[in-house]
Design brief:
The structure is a single chain. The protein is of the alpha/beta class. The chain contains 16 helices and 22 strands. It has helices spanning about 20, 35-45, 55-60, 90-100, 115-130, 185-195, 220-235, 260-265, 275-285, 290-295, 310-315, 370-380, 405-410, 425-445, 460-470, 490-505, and strands spanning about 25, 35, 65, 75-80, 105-110, 140, 150, 155-160, 175-180, 205-210, 245-250, 320, 330-335, 345-350, 355-365, 380-385, 385, 390-400, 420, 455, 470-475, 480-485. Strands 1-11-4-10-9-5-8-7-6 form a nine-stranded mixed β-sheet, with helices on both faces. The radius of gyration is 26 Å and the shape is elongated. The termini are far apart.
Length: about 525
């Protein structure tokens, strides 16, 4: 791989840039009144550690507090998307060292996905602990396999381990959790470890990583990024938005010249004054795939280069007018909840003969718990004296954020359990594949002048059309199984109609009543 070419002008002095200058996306929590960073900075000086201006800004944002003295990002956490070779272990590590010294007996879990990364982090921070001005604060450094830890003289300790080996589960009273390599952080691993911090009054959860590869299980990182960028957009429009998360993203832009050293300095605020050119060359030598260099060397998310997925060209060909919508047939509904519990969509499908017609009935943004009861009530509303659920062969639900609760609410409203399908993961994959398969076949039929087997409503479906335009296939399993994702939009409308189509095609039993889908 060629080395980035030098520019005619000198590289800007990155060491003098503030966090707001460095970050491409900076979304701070609401309600900030103070920060705990000044005392940390003073302790760092005693330790012989000096932070650059951008690192100081990061420290102030991480330790920002509300009026009640609790961390402003104490609920949603601190999330940092940044390239490799930027010194994030040193930055976060020195802040945590200072906190461990200032506050006796605090407990820190530092976890990476891979053992190799965890071991490397332990070695780096062990070396830091041996520095002349830090060593007096350290009681012991234990390097035993599976028991790596740094213990301070005041009882504070930092424990290291790999999530792939189950590290962190069942450890109570944890004050700080650091999720390194959070581009490889599954929701299950998160749910296993977060309870460790639930027994302390003011916990701090820090997530940091590089932009994920397509095959990475990055649902947590992606969902938090999408939520943060949505908040940034709303704030830019002048809206006041409550937010309990800190999102910091440092990286180059999609249209930047990746061979320009000024672009490298833009992506890596530690280059060249802390991270030398030789270290960058070593990184590039190991990242032979240009896409890997873009993600890990320059901090660019793949979605910034996304131009749409497989439905982008297919969907417009399948639109029909309201007068062409079937009024009788086999119906099913699909409800899809987003992984971040902030979006839910309701879709419908009616099959007449071999033709399936789909529509997005509703799509909501905001905490999904607020939508569950009204959604359950909608299914039991009577249409011409018949409850809406009776008109459907199936009500198909997906998404752990709300599917199980909605199922319970429906059963409480006397909807038969047999009429409700909470899909398994393989069934979800099957539903996604079914929509793409039938959309492809339908578009081919249209080109041949034949009747398509799948249609959708041409007007009044802005959210559905936008979702279909931006939805991409995201690999979810090693065997190639995939689900819908939309880094630049909302995937739940496409998921909802996929589930409705799945329900109608697999449960083709006609129910009472006729009329339009709604």
């Amino acid at each position: 791989m060629p080395s980035p070419r030098p520019t005619k002008t000198s590289t800007p002095t990155t060491s003098e840039r503030k966090l707001s200058d460095v970050a491409k996306h900076l979304v701070v929590p609401s309600g900030i009144k103070t920060t705990g960073y000044p005392s940390v900075e003073a302790q760092c000086r005693k330790m012989g550690v000096a932070h650059d201006p951008w690192q100081k800004g990061l420290g102030r944002a991480i330790l920002a507090k509300r009026e009640n003295g609790l961390y402003a990002a104490g609920i949603g956490g601190v999330l940092i998307s940044i390239c490799r070779q930027v010194g994030k272990t040193f930055t976060i590590g020195t802040i945590i060292f200072a906190l461990c010294i200032i506050f006796p007996r605090i407990k820190v879990l530092w976890t990476a996905h891979h053992s190799a990364t965890s071991d490397e982090t332990f070695e780096t921070l062990s070396s830091l602990a041996k520095r002349r001005r830090i060593a007096p604060y350290i009681r012991s450094v234990r390097a035993g396999n599976g028991k790596q830890r740094i213990v301070f003289t005041n009882g504070s300790r930092i424990m290291f381990g790999a999530r792939e080996h189950g590290f962190g589960r069942g450890i109570p009273g944890v004050t700080i959790v650091v999720f390194d390599e959070c581009q490889i952080l599954k929701a299950k691993a998160l749910s296993d470890m977060i309870p460790a911090a639930n027994t302390v009054k003011n916990p701090l959860i820090i997530y940091m990583g590089t932009p994920p590869k397509p095959e990475d299980p990055a649902e947590v990182f992606k969902a938090r990024r999408k939520k943060a960028l949505a908040v940034k957009k709303r704030r830019a429009a002048g809206e006041t938005v409550d937010f309990d998360t800190l999102w910091v993203e440092v990286g180059a832009d999609r249209d930047d010249d990746v061979e320009d050293r000024n672009v490298l300095a833009k992506a890596n605020p530690s280059f060249p004054h802390r991270t030398p050119w030789e270290a960058i060359l070593r990184l590039r030598e190991n990242l032979t795939d240009p896409a890997d260099w873009s993600r890990e060397g320059l901090g660019i998310w793949d979605e910034e280069n996304a131009v749409g997925g497989p439905l982008k060209k297919l969907w417009p060909q399948l639109a029909v007018g309201a007068d062409q919508v079937p009024t009788d047939g086999v119906r099913a509904y699909g409800v899809a909840f987003s992984a971040d519990a902030m979006r839910v969509s309701l879709g419908g499908c009616i099959i007449a003969g071999e033709r399936a017609h789909t529509e997005l009935i509703d799509a909501q943004q905001g905490p999904v718990e607020e939508t569950l009861a009204p959604l359950a009530d909608w299914f039991v509303e009577e249409i011409d004296g018949v409850p809406r659920w009776r008109r459907a062969s199936a009500i198909v639900l997906s998404g752990r954020a709300g599917a199980i609760v909605l199922e319970r609410l429906l059963i409480e409203r006397r909807v038969p359990r047999r009429r409700i399908i909470v899909v398994t993961t393989p069934q979800y994959f099957q539903a996604c594949g079914l929509l793409l398969e039938q959309a492809t076949a339908a578009a081919s039929a249209v080109k041949r002048g034949e009747q398509p087997i799948l249609t959708h409503l041409a007007s009044g479906q802005v959210q559905m059309d936008d979702s279909a335009d931006k939805a991409v296939q995201e690999k979810r399993a090693r065997d190639g199984a995939w689900g819908w994702a939309s880094p630049a939009g909302d995937e739940t409308p496409v998921e909802a109609v996929s589930l409705a189509l799945f329900g109608a095609r697999t449960g083709r039993k006609k129910r009472e009543g006729s009329g339009v889908i709604l």
